[in-house]
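Appendix B. Chain record.
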Amino acid sequence: MVSQPKPEGEKSPYFDLATKYKLKIDFRPFIKVESVDSKDFRSQRVNLSEQTAIILTSKVAVDHFFRIAKETRFEVPDTMKYFCISEAIALYLQKYVSYRKRKIFYGKQTILELTDIMKKHKGEKYLLPCTDILRDNIPATLEEQGIPFSKVILYRTVASDLSDLEDVYYDILVFFSPGGIKSLFVNFPDFKQNNTAIAAFGPTTASAVINHDLRLDVHAPHPKAPSMVAALELFIKEQLKKK
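Structure tokens predicted for this chain:
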């Protein structure tokens, strides 16, 4: 069971893995995103008109910033600067703004790399639109690097309803966020791992597995497995050797 939506299209490394090892892979999001309404937004007392730049750490953050701007009738000025954690998010911005008219900057993949770019833009007032379970390292890194910012929660991550899976058992559960682990126990408070292998992507997800007294069997990324699919394949190969 992979706790993410099924990949679109016919091509995916997961599909290749399933064919190669004759696996049955189900995809099911363990978490979902709910919007913070305009009333809750206003209660946070963040004035959008005072911000001159926005820090965007995900495509979801992009969507919800422009959603709340529309709901509150805030016209985003042409002078607004956008600092994206990756090029993929910067390209996604084209859904809302024109590249030629706006000022868009992006890092390679981490918030620390992005702050190196932000330091070249002194005097900006940054807005950080985020979820209620934002990773601590993002605001901590901004503070450590002396970047002034206002955090505003525009969406919440909540557990999906997985009650229909109660009598379904999997050999491997694959998680990509601490929220997925939380959802597992919200839906199944008496969950016992037993022989079920658990895979986690990223250090915060791995920590959530361990903090819930679960056994971490597969962890990515690492030097031999930069992706979750690669890590799963290594694990499967090891299991086949034992048979």
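Further analysis of this model is presented in Appendix C.
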